[in-house]
Amino acid sequence: MAHGRMWPLYAAGFTTAFGAHSIAANLGGFTSGGAFSFLVLGGLLALYDGAEVLLKPVFGALADRIGTRPLLLGGLVGFAAASALFVLAGDGGLLWLARLGQGAAASAFSPAASAMVARLSPKSGHGRAFGSYGFFKNIGYTAGPLLGGAAAALGGLPLLFGVLSVLAAGVAVWTAVAVPALPPLPRARQTVLDLARRLGEGGFLRPTAALGAATAALSVGVGFLPVSGAAAGLGPVATGAVVSLLAACTALVQPWAGRALDSGRMTSGTGIGAGLLLTTGGLAAAMLPGLTGVLSAALAIGVGAGLITPLAFAALAAATAPERLGQTMGAAEIGREVGDAGGPLLVGGVATAAALAGGFAALAGVTAVLSLALVPRRAGGQAETPSPS
Known about the structure:
The chain is mostly helical. It contains eleven helices and no strands. It folds into two domains: 1-177, MFS general substrate transporter like domains (Growth Hormone, Chain: A, Up-down Bundle), CATH 1.20.1250; 191-377, Up-down Bundle (Growth Hormone, Chain: A), CATH 1.20.1250.
């Protein structure tokens, strides 16, 4: 694998994650409290993810048609321009438009980067490649609130948007210099029915559902484990450390899981199954009171998600014909977005009637069912290996 051409792709993954969380963590200062302000905040938070849900499948399919590199470069340039728009406006009047533009641009370059990771690495190295990509993307999620908060404290949202503009522009230049053009591959004509049939196959549904479950658990861990810790008398430093532990485990396990897959020490099916079981155990541990419960939950959820993420993306790449990689990666991202929103909604909804432990139990039950249903088995205990379609 030529590492020089992969590093800009890892940087693109970092950019979309850092852009999402650095702004989201600091939008609260834009509102002043009250019901209307909370509604405004909710709308601003939803713009980025909403644009991704709607546009990622569209841009993923377009990448297969015109090539992944134009979408990657165009998305990064668009992200830089949308960020600069807010800085040049000089006030918060264009915040909505800038945030929508960022989400739309990320919808273009994120699936394109994932598809290029698959195409630029040999199939025998998909695990390592996606493990590294996931590692840097998770670093972006982790560093976003901290570094974004520092930038916002120094110069408000304009400085933070300026940093994001420079970051995206720099990655775009790096990509233009180091990443080769990959011409679109010949594709057979595909009808809507063909697409629905392909996305309904187990080779797509199983890894995508696993990604959704892992993302749901991560989102719940970040949002609700601090609540459990505070209820047990832990201070903000301790609860922040718990979230950091969760994020660190997720980041550090991914490269290891990818290498284990490539070396044959782990199959994608067994690794995803183990990750789902660990995630289930972590959600169950979150029901325990005190520091032991929240630490155990953070450790197990983090390791479980770190196992699932690169193995699921490698399984998607293995089950997809190269000329359809953009479409598949864009569609698979919907599963992650659904988990990101659905996990907290499920836990929060159940918790209103049955306390927070009941919410954790509900998501643990869903994840446990998935761990039994998602990994097909053949005689001899080996996970089924899908063939490209």
